[in-house]
Protein backbone atom coordinates (compact mmCIF):
# COMPACT_ATOMS: atom_id res chain seq x y z
CA UNK A 1 0.00 0.00 0.00
CA UNK A 2 1.26 3.47 -0.91
CA UNK A 3 1.51 5.94 1.97
CA UNK A 4 2.39 9.63 2.31
CA UNK A 5 2.18 12.13 5.16
CA UNK A 6 -0.01 14.53 3.15
CA UNK A 7 -2.19 13.51 0.19
CA UNK A 8 -3.48 16.37 -1.97
CA UNK A 9 -6.22 15.55 -4.47
CA UNK A 10 -6.70 17.98 -7.37
CA UNK A 11 -4.97 19.48 -10.37
CA UNK A 12 -5.29 23.23 -10.03
CA UNK A 13 -3.84 26.26 -8.39
CA UNK A 14 -5.03 25.57 -4.83
CA UNK A 15 -3.43 22.17 -4.61
CA UNK A 16 -0.10 23.48 -5.96
CA UNK A 17 0.02 26.27 -3.40
CA UNK A 18 -0.94 23.74 -0.73
CA UNK A 19 1.76 21.32 -1.85
CA UNK A 20 4.46 23.98 -1.75
CA UNK A 21 3.48 25.09 1.73
CA UNK A 22 3.20 21.54 3.10
CA UNK A 23 6.56 20.62 1.59
CA UNK A 24 8.11 23.67 3.25
CA UNK A 25 6.98 22.25 6.61
CA UNK A 26 9.18 19.22 6.02
CA UNK A 27 6.61 16.46 5.45
CA UNK A 28 6.25 13.90 2.66
CA UNK A 29 3.73 15.33 0.16
CA UNK A 30 1.90 13.67 -2.74
CA UNK A 31 -0.44 15.06 -5.37
CA UNK A 32 -3.12 12.85 -6.93
CA UNK A 33 -4.83 14.22 -10.03
CA UNK A 34 -7.01 12.80 -12.78
CA UNK A 35 -5.41 15.03 -15.39
CA UNK A 36 -1.96 16.38 -16.05
CA UNK A 37 -1.47 19.31 -13.64
CA UNK A 38 -1.07 22.17 -16.12
CA UNK A 39 -4.29 21.09 -17.86
CA UNK A 40 -6.28 22.01 -14.75
CA UNK A 41 -9.26 24.32 -15.00
CA UNK A 42 -7.32 27.05 -13.16
CA UNK A 43 -5.58 27.91 -16.43
CA UNK A 44 -8.97 29.07 -17.77
CA UNK A 45 -9.15 31.97 -15.28
CA UNK A 46 -8.58 35.00 -17.45
CA UNK A 47 -9.17 38.45 -16.03
CA UNK A 48 -7.09 38.83 -12.88
CA UNK A 49 -6.44 38.26 -9.19
CA UNK A 50 -7.63 40.85 -6.66
CA UNK A 51 -5.43 42.80 -4.26
CA UNK A 52 -5.60 46.26 -2.71
CA UNK A 53 -2.06 47.36 -3.53
CA UNK A 54 -0.67 50.58 -2.12
CA UNK A 55 0.03 52.03 -5.57
CA UNK A 56 -3.73 52.60 -6.08
CA UNK A 57 -4.78 55.76 -4.29
CA UNK A 58 -7.45 55.36 -1.61
CA UNK A 59 -7.49 51.58 -1.95
CA UNK A 60 -7.32 49.49 1.22
CA UNK A 61 -7.89 45.96 2.41
CA UNK A 62 -10.94 47.26 4.33
CA UNK A 63 -12.46 48.42 1.02
CA UNK A 64 -11.70 45.06 -0.53
CA UNK A 65 -13.27 43.26 2.42
CA UNK A 66 -16.41 45.40 2.29
CA UNK A 67 -16.81 44.92 -1.46
CA UNK A 68 -16.47 41.16 -0.94
CA UNK A 69 -19.09 41.09 1.82
CA UNK A 70 -21.51 43.32 -0.09
CA UNK A 71 -20.96 41.34 -3.28
CA UNK A 72 -21.73 38.16 -1.32
CA UNK A 73 -25.13 39.66 -0.42
CA UNK A 74 -23.93 39.60 3.20
CA UNK A 75 -23.78 35.79 3.41
CA UNK A 76 -19.97 35.70 3.52
CA UNK A 77 -18.41 35.04 6.92
CA UNK A 78 -16.72 38.34 7.62
CA UNK A 79 -13.79 36.95 9.58
CA UNK A 80 -12.87 34.93 6.47
CA UNK A 81 -13.41 37.89 4.13
CA UNK A 82 -10.97 39.84 6.30
CA UNK A 83 -8.33 37.10 6.00
CA UNK A 84 -8.73 37.10 2.21
CA UNK A 85 -8.45 40.88 1.83
CA UNK A 86 -5.61 41.31 4.35
CA UNK A 87 -3.48 38.56 2.81
CA UNK A 88 -4.02 39.61 -0.82
CA UNK A 89 -1.05 42.00 -1.25
CA UNK A 90 1.31 39.49 0.34
CA UNK A 91 0.00 36.78 -1.99
CA UNK A 92 0.68 38.92 -5.06
CA UNK A 93 4.21 39.64 -3.86
CA UNK A 94 4.87 35.93 -3.35
CA UNK A 95 3.62 35.09 -6.83
CA UNK A 96 5.74 37.83 -8.37
CA UNK A 97 8.81 36.72 -6.47
CA UNK A 98 8.59 33.18 -7.86
CA UNK A 99 8.34 34.48 -11.40
CA UNK A 100 4.72 35.15 -12.36
CA UNK A 101 4.79 37.54 -15.31
CA UNK A 102 2.07 40.04 -14.48
CA UNK A 103 1.22 42.90 -16.83
CA UNK A 104 2.85 46.23 -16.00
CA UNK A 105 2.31 49.88 -16.63
CA UNK A 106 4.84 52.03 -18.46
CA UNK A 107 6.39 53.06 -15.12
CA UNK A 108 7.14 49.39 -14.38
CA UNK A 109 4.50 49.00 -11.66
CA UNK A 110 1.87 46.28 -11.75
CA UNK A 111 -1.12 47.09 -13.92
CA UNK A 112 -4.60 46.63 -12.47
CA UNK A 113 -7.97 46.73 -14.20
CA UNK A 114 -11.50 47.31 -13.01
CA UNK A 115 -13.72 44.32 -12.21
CA UNK A 116 -17.37 43.85 -11.34
CA UNK A 117 -18.43 44.76 -7.82
CA UNK A 118 -15.06 46.23 -6.86
CA UNK A 119 -14.98 49.91 -5.89
CA UNK A 120 -11.34 50.27 -7.05
CA UNK A 121 -9.07 48.82 -9.71
CA UNK A 122 -7.79 45.69 -7.97
CA UNK A 123 -7.40 43.08 -10.69
CA UNK A 124 -3.69 42.29 -11.05
CA UNK A 125 -3.46 40.61 -14.44
CA UNK A 126 -1.34 38.85 -17.00
CA UNK A 127 -3.25 40.28 -19.99
CA UNK A 128 -6.24 37.89 -20.14
CA UNK A 129 -4.26 34.75 -19.24
CA UNK A 130 -3.84 35.28 -15.52
CA UNK A 131 -4.72 31.79 -14.33
CA UNK A 132 -2.47 30.29 -16.99
CA UNK A 133 0.46 32.46 -15.89
CA UNK A 134 0.08 31.63 -12.18
CA UNK A 135 -0.58 27.93 -12.75
CA UNK A 136 2.55 27.44 -14.86
CA UNK A 137 4.71 29.42 -12.45
CA UNK A 138 3.63 27.40 -9.42
CA UNK A 139 3.94 24.14 -11.32
CA UNK A 140 7.59 24.98 -11.95
CA UNK A 141 8.02 25.43 -8.20
CA UNK A 142 6.24 22.15 -7.45
CA UNK A 143 8.51 20.29 -9.85
CA UNK A 144 11.55 21.93 -8.28
CA UNK A 145 10.39 20.90 -4.80
CA UNK A 146 10.21 17.23 -5.85
CA UNK A 147 6.66 16.65 -4.64
CA UNK A 148 5.34 13.19 -5.58
CA UNK A 149 2.80 13.48 -8.41
CA UNK A 150 0.37 10.72 -9.38
CA UNK A 151 -1.30 12.08 -12.50
CA UNK A 152 -4.11 10.35 -14.39
CA UNK A 153 -5.37 8.80 -11.16
CA UNK A 154 -9.14 9.15 -10.75
CA UNK A 155 -10.06 9.20 -7.05
CA UNK A 156 -13.08 6.99 -6.34
CA UNK A 157 -13.45 7.08 -2.55
CA UNK A 158 -12.51 9.08 0.54
CA UNK A 159 -11.68 6.55 3.25
CA UNK A 160 -13.05 7.48 6.68
CA UNK A 161 -13.14 5.21 9.71
CA UNK A 162 -14.17 6.06 13.27
CA UNK A 163 -14.13 9.80 12.68
CA UNK A 164 -10.68 9.79 11.08
CA UNK A 165 -9.69 10.25 7.44
CA UNK A 166 -7.21 7.53 6.49
CA UNK A 167 -6.67 8.15 2.78
CA UNK A 168 -8.21 7.57 -0.63
CA UNK A 169 -8.94 4.98 -3.29
CA UNK A 170 -8.15 5.74 -6.93
CA UNK A 171 -8.27 4.24 -10.40
CA UNK A 172 -4.79 4.38 -11.95
CA UNK A 173 -5.88 4.96 -15.54
CA UNK A 174 -2.52 4.22 -17.16
CA UNK A 175 -2.11 0.84 -15.46
CA UNK A 176 -5.78 -0.07 -15.16
CA UNK A 177 -5.54 -0.78 -11.44
CA UNK A 178 -7.52 0.23 -8.36
CA UNK A 179 -5.18 1.39 -5.61
CA UNK A 180 -5.37 2.52 -2.02
CA UNK A 181 -3.25 5.40 -0.73
CA UNK A 182 -2.90 5.91 3.01
CA UNK A 183 -2.10 9.28 4.55
CA UNK A 184 -1.97 11.19 7.82
CA UNK A 185 -3.65 14.19 6.18
CA UNK A 186 -5.79 14.36 3.05
CA UNK A 187 -6.63 17.62 1.27
CA UNK A 188 -9.30 17.96 -1.41
CA UNK A 189 -8.66 20.77 -3.93
CA UNK A 190 -10.88 19.27 -6.61
CA UNK A 191 -12.67 22.31 -8.02
CA UNK A 192 -16.27 22.88 -9.00
CA UNK A 193 -19.12 21.22 -10.88
CA UNK A 194 -20.06 23.36 -13.88
CA UNK A 195 -20.84 20.28 -15.98
CA UNK A 196 -24.03 19.77 -13.99
CA UNK A 197 -25.53 22.42 -16.29
CA UNK A 198 -24.05 21.44 -19.64
CA UNK A 199 -23.67 25.02 -20.89
CA UNK A 200 -20.73 26.10 -18.77
CA UNK A 201 -17.44 27.95 -18.76
CA UNK A 202 -15.91 24.93 -16.98
CA UNK A 203 -13.90 22.25 -18.74
CA UNK A 204 -14.84 18.57 -19.00
CA UNK A 205 -13.25 17.50 -15.72
CA UNK A 206 -15.34 19.76 -13.44
CA UNK A 207 -17.89 17.26 -12.22
CA UNK A 208 -17.95 17.94 -8.50
CA UNK A 209 -15.91 14.82 -7.74
CA UNK A 210 -14.45 15.90 -4.40
CA UNK A 211 -17.70 17.47 -3.21
CA UNK A 212 -19.68 14.30 -3.92
CA UNK A 213 -17.06 11.96 -2.43
CA UNK A 214 -16.94 14.01 0.77
CA UNK A 215 -20.76 14.05 0.94
CA UNK A 216 -20.94 10.28 0.61
CA UNK A 217 -18.28 9.95 3.32
CA UNK A 218 -20.55 11.83 5.72
CA UNK A 219 -19.18 15.36 5.40
CA UNK A 220 -21.62 18.30 5.47
CA UNK A 221 -21.89 20.46 2.35
CA UNK A 222 -22.45 24.17 2.87
CA UNK A 223 -24.54 26.64 0.83
CA UNK A 224 -24.95 24.36 -2.18
CA UNK A 225 -27.92 26.36 -3.50
CA UNK A 226 -25.62 29.21 -4.53
CA UNK A 227 -24.34 28.66 -8.07
CA UNK A 228 -22.77 31.50 -10.03
CA UNK A 229 -23.75 32.08 -13.65
CA UNK A 230 -21.19 34.24 -15.39
CA UNK A 231 -22.96 36.92 -17.46
CA UNK A 232 -20.77 36.57 -20.54
CA UNK A 233 -20.35 33.08 -21.90
CA UNK A 234 -19.61 32.87 -25.62
CA UNK A 235 -22.79 31.91 -27.47
CA UNK A 236 -23.72 29.10 -27.86
CA UNK A 237 -21.05 27.00 -26.12
CA UNK A 238 -20.74 29.00 -22.91
CA UNK A 239 -16.95 29.41 -23.05
CA UNK A 240 -15.81 32.18 -20.71
CA UNK A 241 -15.48 35.73 -22.01
CA UNK A 242 -13.61 37.39 -19.18
CA UNK A 243 -15.12 40.13 -17.07
CA UNK A 244 -11.90 41.91 -17.95
CA UNK A 245 -13.48 42.69 -21.33
CA UNK A 246 -16.01 44.83 -19.48
CA UNK A 247 -13.27 46.08 -17.18
CA UNK A 248 -11.52 47.45 -20.25
CA UNK A 249 -14.70 49.27 -21.30
CA UNK A 250 -16.95 46.71 -23.06
CA UNK A 251 -20.69 47.46 -23.35
CA UNK A 252 -23.64 45.08 -23.15
CA UNK A 253 -26.11 45.79 -25.97
CA UNK A 254 -29.57 44.33 -26.64
CA UNK A 255 -31.47 43.97 -29.92
CA UNK A 256 -32.77 47.54 -29.61
CA UNK A 257 -29.19 48.82 -29.60
CA UNK A 258 -29.62 49.80 -25.95
CA UNK A 259 -26.83 49.68 -23.39
CA UNK A 260 -29.26 47.99 -21.03
CA UNK A 261 -27.09 47.44 -17.92
CA UNK A 262 -28.04 50.96 -16.81
CA UNK A 263 -31.56 49.76 -16.05
CA UNK A 264 -30.31 47.16 -13.59
CA UNK A 265 -27.21 48.84 -12.09
CA UNK A 266 -27.40 52.61 -12.74
CA UNK A 267 -24.00 53.43 -11.25
CA UNK A 268 -21.71 50.49 -12.05
CA UNK A 269 -23.56 49.31 -15.19
CA UNK A 270 -21.43 46.59 -16.86
CA UNK A 271 -19.22 46.42 -13.77
CA UNK A 272 -22.02 45.37 -11.43
CA UNK A 273 -21.62 41.97 -9.70
CA UNK A 274 -22.21 38.86 -11.75
CA UNK A 275 -25.52 37.78 -10.22
CA UNK A 276 -27.09 41.13 -11.13
CA UNK A 277 -25.79 41.14 -14.70
CA UNK A 278 -26.65 37.48 -15.32
CA UNK A 279 -30.26 38.22 -14.33
CA UNK A 280 -30.20 41.38 -16.46
CA UNK A 281 -29.10 39.51 -19.58
CA UNK A 282 -31.53 36.66 -18.97
CA UNK A 283 -34.35 39.16 -18.47
CA UNK A 284 -33.52 40.91 -21.75
CA UNK A 285 -33.58 37.54 -23.53
CA UNK A 286 -36.83 36.37 -21.91
CA UNK A 287 -38.55 39.67 -22.71
CA UNK A 288 -37.66 39.36 -26.38
CA UNK A 289 -34.71 41.74 -26.62
CA UNK A 290 -32.09 39.13 -27.43
CA UNK A 291 -30.23 39.73 -30.69
CA UNK A 292 -32.55 38.87 -33.58
CA UNK A 293 -34.90 37.30 -31.04
CA UNK A 294 -32.33 34.65 -30.08
CA UNK A 295 -31.09 33.78 -26.59
CA UNK A 296 -28.03 36.01 -26.50
CA UNK A 297 -27.05 39.69 -26.39
CA UNK A 298 -23.94 41.49 -27.59
CA UNK A 299 -20.75 42.39 -25.76
CA UNK A 300 -19.42 45.30 -27.79
CA UNK A 301 -15.70 46.14 -27.74
CA UNK A 302 -15.56 47.84 -31.13
CA UNK A 303 -15.20 51.32 -29.60
CA UNK A 304 -12.02 50.24 -27.74
CA UNK A 305 -8.65 50.95 -29.36
CA UNK A 306 -7.36 48.09 -31.49
CA UNK A 307 -3.96 48.03 -29.79
CA UNK A 308 -5.57 47.91 -26.36
CA UNK A 309 -7.57 44.82 -27.32
CA UNK A 310 -4.47 43.16 -28.79
CA UNK A 311 -2.43 43.93 -25.67
CA UNK A 312 -4.92 43.26 -22.88
CA UNK A 313 -7.44 40.82 -24.40
CA UNK A 314 -5.43 38.71 -26.89
CA UNK A 315 -6.89 35.39 -25.70
CA UNK A 316 -10.46 36.68 -25.99
CA UNK A 317 -9.80 37.88 -29.52
CA UNK A 318 -8.27 34.55 -30.50
CA UNK A 319 -11.09 32.62 -28.84
CA UNK A 320 -13.94 34.55 -30.45
CA UNK A 321 -12.29 34.45 -33.88
CA UNK A 322 -11.67 30.70 -33.71
CA UNK A 323 -14.92 29.64 -32.04
CA UNK A 324 -17.47 32.17 -33.32
CA UNK A 325 -15.85 33.73 -36.39
CA UNK A 326 -16.05 37.13 -34.69
CA UNK A 327 -13.19 39.62 -34.50
CA UNK A 328 -14.08 41.82 -31.48
CA UNK A 329 -12.11 44.69 -32.98
CA UNK A 330 -14.65 44.85 -35.80
CA UNK A 331 -17.92 43.36 -34.50
CA UNK A 332 -19.65 42.59 -31.17
CA UNK A 333 -19.38 39.22 -29.39
CA UNK A 334 -22.56 37.14 -28.89
CA UNK A 335 -22.86 36.25 -25.19
CA UNK A 336 -25.27 34.71 -22.71
CA UNK A 337 -25.01 33.54 -19.08
CA UNK A 338 -23.04 30.36 -18.46
CA UNK A 339 -22.66 28.15 -15.37
CA UNK A 340 -19.38 29.25 -13.87
CA UNK A 341 -18.64 28.81 -10.16
CA UNK A 342 -19.79 27.06 -7.00
CA UNK A 343 -19.99 29.26 -3.93
CA UNK A 344 -21.01 26.19 -1.93
CA UNK A 345 -18.96 23.12 -1.20
CA UNK A 346 -17.38 21.03 1.55
CA UNK A 347 -17.94 22.69 4.93
CA UNK A 348 -14.64 23.87 6.44
CA UNK A 349 -13.52 26.28 9.15
CA UNK A 350 -11.13 29.19 8.75
CA UNK A 351 -8.19 26.77 8.81
CA UNK A 352 -9.76 24.64 6.06
CA UNK A 353 -10.40 21.75 8.47
CA UNK A 354 -13.52 19.61 8.13
CA UNK A 355 -15.39 17.79 10.94
CA UNK A 356 -13.44 14.64 9.93
CA UNK A 357 -10.03 14.46 11.63
CA UNK A 358 -7.21 14.56 9.10
CA UNK A 359 -9.42 15.75 6.23
CA UNK A 360 -9.06 19.25 4.78
CA UNK A 361 -10.46 21.09 1.75
CA UNK A 362 -9.72 24.38 0.00
CA UNK A 363 -10.51 26.22 -3.21
CA UNK A 364 -13.74 25.93 -5.15
CA UNK A 365 -14.66 22.47 -3.80
CA UNK A 366 -14.76 23.91 -0.28
CA UNK A 367 -16.99 26.44 1.43
CA UNK A 368 -15.04 28.49 3.92
CA UNK A 369 -17.72 31.02 3.02
CA UNK A 370 -15.65 33.89 1.78
CA UNK A 371 -17.95 34.29 -1.25
CA UNK A 372 -21.34 33.89 0.43
CA UNK A 373 -24.21 34.05 -2.06
CA UNK A 374 -22.19 35.56 -4.93
CA UNK A 375 -18.45 35.66 -5.66
CA UNK A 376 -16.77 38.78 -6.95
CA UNK A 377 -14.56 38.25 -9.98
CA UNK A 378 -10.79 37.97 -9.23
CA UNK A 379 -11.47 36.69 -5.70
CA UNK A 380 -11.32 33.04 -6.81
CA UNK A 381 -7.65 33.02 -7.84
CA UNK A 382 -6.96 34.94 -4.65
CA UNK A 383 -8.78 32.31 -2.58
CA UNK A 384 -6.70 29.61 -4.28
CA UNK A 385 -3.38 31.07 -3.21
CA UNK A 386 -4.38 32.46 0.21
CA UNK A 387 -6.23 29.38 1.41
CA UNK A 388 -4.02 26.99 -0.54
CA UNK A 389 -1.15 28.22 1.56
CA UNK A 390 -3.25 28.01 4.71
CA UNK A 391 -4.50 24.47 4.12
CA UNK A 392 -1.03 23.21 3.21
CA UNK A 393 0.38 24.46 6.49
CA UNK A 394 -2.53 23.13 8.57
CA UNK A 395 -2.46 19.68 6.97
CA UNK A 396 1.32 19.43 7.35
CA UNK A 397 1.12 20.38 11.03
CA UNK A 398 -1.59 17.79 11.59
CA UNK A 399 0.55 15.15 9.88
CA UNK A 400 3.54 16.07 12.02
CA UNK A 401 1.49 15.68 15.20
CA UNK A 402 -0.12 12.33 14.30
CA UNK A 403 1.07 8.86 13.39
CA UNK A 404 0.17 7.05 10.17
CA UNK A 405 -3.28 5.48 10.60
CA UNK A 406 -3.78 1.74 10.37
CA UNK A 407 -5.80 0.69 7.34
CA UNK A 408 -6.83 -2.64 5.84
CA UNK A 409 -7.36 -2.16 2.12
CA UNK A 410 -8.94 -5.49 1.19
CA UNK A 411 -12.51 -4.53 2.08
CA UNK A 412 -12.33 -1.31 0.04
CA UNK A 413 -10.72 -3.00 -2.94
CA UNK A 414 -13.45 -5.64 -2.93
CA UNK A 415 -16.20 -2.97 -2.88
CA UNK A 416 -14.65 -1.14 -5.81
CA UNK A 417 -14.23 -4.31 -7.85
CA UNK A 418 -17.88 -5.20 -7.21
CA UNK A 419 -18.90 -1.74 -8.44
CA UNK A 420 -16.86 -2.12 -11.63
CA UNK A 421 -18.31 -5.56 -12.31
CA UNK A 422 -21.83 -4.23 -11.80
CA UNK A 423 -21.18 -1.46 -14.33
CA UNK A 424 -19.58 -3.76 -16.89
CA UNK A 425 -21.61 -6.95 -16.47
CA UNK A 426 -24.93 -5.70 -15.15
CA UNK A 427 -28.15 -6.18 -17.07
CA UNK A 428 -29.44 -2.63 -16.62
CA UNK A 429 -30.50 -0.63 -19.66
CA UNK A 430 -29.57 2.87 -18.54
CA UNK A 431 -26.78 4.71 -20.39
CA UNK A 432 -24.43 7.34 -18.99
CA UNK A 433 -24.82 9.78 -21.88
CA UNK A 434 -28.62 9.71 -21.77
CA UNK A 435 -28.85 10.19 -18.00
CA UNK A 436 -26.28 13.00 -18.05
CA UNK A 437 -28.21 14.84 -20.77
CA UNK A 438 -31.47 14.44 -18.86
CA UNK A 439 -29.84 15.70 -15.66
CA UNK A 440 -28.33 18.73 -17.37
CA UNK A 441 -31.60 19.64 -19.07
CA UNK A 442 -33.44 19.35 -15.75
CA UNK A 443 -30.98 21.70 -14.05
CA UNK A 444 -31.01 24.13 -16.96
CA UNK A 445 -34.82 24.22 -17.11
CA UNK A 446 -35.65 24.50 -13.41
CA UNK A 447 -32.56 25.24 -11.25
CA UNK A 448 -31.12 28.07 -13.29
CA UNK A 449 -30.92 31.85 -12.89
CA UNK A 450 -34.62 32.23 -12.04
CA UNK A 451 -36.15 29.61 -9.75
CA UNK A 452 -39.59 28.82 -8.33
CA UNK A 453 -41.09 26.30 -5.93
CA UNK A 454 -42.95 24.55 -8.73
CA UNK A 455 -39.86 24.24 -10.92
CA UNK A 456 -37.56 23.20 -8.07
CA UNK A 457 -40.02 20.57 -6.88
CA UNK A 458 -40.29 19.16 -10.40
CA UNK A 459 -36.49 19.12 -10.72
CA UNK A 460 -36.01 17.45 -7.34
CA UNK A 461 -38.45 14.67 -8.23
CA UNK A 462 -36.62 14.05 -11.53
CA UNK A 463 -33.18 14.05 -9.91
CA UNK A 464 -34.26 11.53 -7.27
CA UNK A 465 -35.53 9.27 -10.07
CA UNK A 466 -32.31 9.73 -12.05
CA UNK A 467 -30.34 8.85 -8.91
CA UNK A 468 -32.32 5.61 -8.64
CA UNK A 469 -31.96 4.86 -12.34
CA UNK A 470 -28.19 5.23 -12.08
CA UNK A 471 -28.18 1.87 -10.29
CA UNK A 472 -29.13 0.34 -13.65
CA UNK A 473 -26.33 1.97 -15.65
CA UNK A 474 -24.14 -0.37 -17.67
CA UNK A 475 -21.07 0.35 -19.80
CA UNK A 476 -19.90 -1.58 -22.83
CA UNK A 477 -16.16 -0.98 -22.48
CA UNK A 478 -14.56 -3.72 -20.36
CA UNK A 479 -10.95 -2.65 -20.86
CA UNK A 480 -8.76 -1.85 -17.86
CA UNK A 481 -6.48 0.87 -19.20
CA UNK A 482 -7.89 4.38 -19.73
CA UNK A 483 -11.47 3.17 -19.49
CA UNK A 484 -13.23 6.48 -20.01
CA UNK A 485 -16.63 4.79 -19.99
CA UNK A 486 -15.93 3.82 -16.37
CA UNK A 487 -14.68 7.28 -15.36
CA UNK A 488 -17.64 8.92 -17.15
CA UNK A 489 -19.97 6.77 -15.06
CA UNK A 490 -18.17 7.82 -11.87
CA UNK A 491 -18.43 11.47 -12.86
CA UNK A 492 -22.13 11.15 -13.60
CA UNK A 493 -22.71 9.64 -10.16
CA UNK A 494 -20.95 12.65 -8.66
CA UNK A 495 -22.93 15.14 -10.76
CA UNK A 496 -26.20 13.54 -9.67
CA UNK A 497 -25.38 14.00 -5.99
CA UNK A 498 -24.26 17.58 -6.60
CA UNK A 499 -27.50 18.36 -8.47
CA UNK A 500 -29.51 16.72 -5.69
CA UNK A 501 -27.91 18.98 -3.09
CA UNK A 502 -28.24 22.18 -5.13
CA UNK A 503 -31.90 21.57 -5.83
CA UNK A 504 -32.94 20.42 -2.36
CA UNK A 505 -31.24 23.41 -0.73
CA UNK A 506 -32.67 25.85 -3.29
CA UNK A 507 -36.18 24.53 -2.65
CA UNK A 508 -35.83 25.09 1.09
CA UNK A 509 -34.36 28.63 0.90
CA UNK A 510 -37.46 30.79 0.56
CA UNK A 511 -35.82 34.11 -0.32
CA UNK A 512 -33.75 35.71 -3.08
CA UNK A 513 -30.11 36.33 -2.19
CA UNK A 514 -27.15 36.72 -4.53
CA UNK A 515 -27.13 34.02 -7.19
CA UNK A 516 -30.20 32.31 -5.71
CA UNK A 517 -33.23 34.11 -7.12
CA UNK A 518 -36.75 32.87 -6.38
CA UNK A 519 -39.55 34.36 -8.47
CA UNK A 520 -41.96 33.43 -5.67
CA UNK A 521 -39.80 35.05 -2.95
CA UNK A 522 -38.20 38.02 -4.69
CA UNK A 523 -36.77 39.81 -1.64
CA UNK A 524 -33.86 39.00 0.62
CA UNK A 525 -35.07 37.85 4.05
CA UNK A 526 -32.41 38.52 6.67
CA UNK A 527 -34.75 37.76 9.56
CA UNK A 528 -35.23 34.13 8.50
CA UNK A 529 -32.44 33.34 6.06
CA UNK A 530 -29.25 35.15 7.09
CA UNK A 531 -27.72 31.73 7.68
CA UNK A 532 -25.69 29.03 5.97
CA UNK A 533 -27.25 25.76 4.91
CA UNK A 534 -25.54 22.49 5.83
CA UNK A 535 -26.62 19.31 4.06
CA UNK A 536 -25.74 15.81 5.27
CA UNK A 537 -26.31 12.35 3.80
CA UNK A 538 -28.22 10.39 6.43
CA UNK A 539 -29.91 7.04 5.77
CA UNK A 540 -29.90 7.69 2.05
CA UNK A 541 -31.59 11.10 2.34
CA UNK A 542 -30.44 14.71 2.60
CA UNK A 543 -30.75 16.16 6.09
CA UNK A 544 -30.54 19.96 6.40
CA UNK A 545 -29.21 22.07 9.24
CA UNK A 546 -28.40 25.79 9.42
CA UNK A 547 -25.59 27.87 10.91
CA UNK A 548 -25.33 31.60 11.64
CA UNK A 549 -23.30 33.89 9.40
CA UNK A 550 -20.28 35.46 11.12
CA UNK A 551 -20.72 39.24 11.16
CA UNK A 552 -17.83 41.34 12.52
CA UNK A 553 -17.76 44.77 10.84
CA UNK A 554 -20.62 45.29 8.41
CA UNK A 555 -24.32 44.90 9.17
CA UNK A 556 -26.40 43.80 6.19
CA UNK A 557 -27.75 46.59 3.98
CA UNK A 558 -29.55 46.73 0.68
CA UNK A 559 -27.20 46.10 -2.23
CA UNK A 560 -27.19 48.98 -4.70
CA UNK A 561 -24.83 49.41 -7.63
Automatic annotation (TrEMBL):
The keyword Transport appears for this protein: yes
Protein name: succinate dehydrogenase
Cellular component, GO annotation: plasma membrane
Gene3D superfamilies according to UniProt: FAD/NAD(P)-binding domain, Fumarate reductase/succinate dehydrogenase flavoprotein-like, C-terminal domain, succinate dehydrogenase protein domain, Succinate dehydrogenase/fumarate reductase flavoprotein, catalytic domain
GO molecular function, one term: succinate dehydrogenase (quinone) activity
Species for this entry: candidate division MSBL1 archaeon SCGC-AAA259E22
Compartment annotation: Membrane
Domain of life the protein comes from: Archaea
Amino acid sequence: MISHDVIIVGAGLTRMRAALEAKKEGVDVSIVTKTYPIRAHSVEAQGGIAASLARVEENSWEDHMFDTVKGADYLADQDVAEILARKAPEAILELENVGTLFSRKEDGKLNQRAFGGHSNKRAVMASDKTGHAIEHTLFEQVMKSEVNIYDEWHVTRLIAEDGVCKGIMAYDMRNGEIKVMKGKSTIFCTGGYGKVYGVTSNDLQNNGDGIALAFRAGMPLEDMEFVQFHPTGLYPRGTLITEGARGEGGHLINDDGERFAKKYAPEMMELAPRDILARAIQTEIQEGRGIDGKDHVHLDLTHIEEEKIKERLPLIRELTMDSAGVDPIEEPIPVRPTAHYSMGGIHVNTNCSTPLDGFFAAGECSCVSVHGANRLGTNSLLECVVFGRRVGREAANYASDNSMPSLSSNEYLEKERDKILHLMEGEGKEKVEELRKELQETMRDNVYIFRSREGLKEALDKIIKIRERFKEVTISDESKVFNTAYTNALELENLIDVAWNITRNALEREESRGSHYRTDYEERDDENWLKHSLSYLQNGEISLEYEDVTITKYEPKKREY
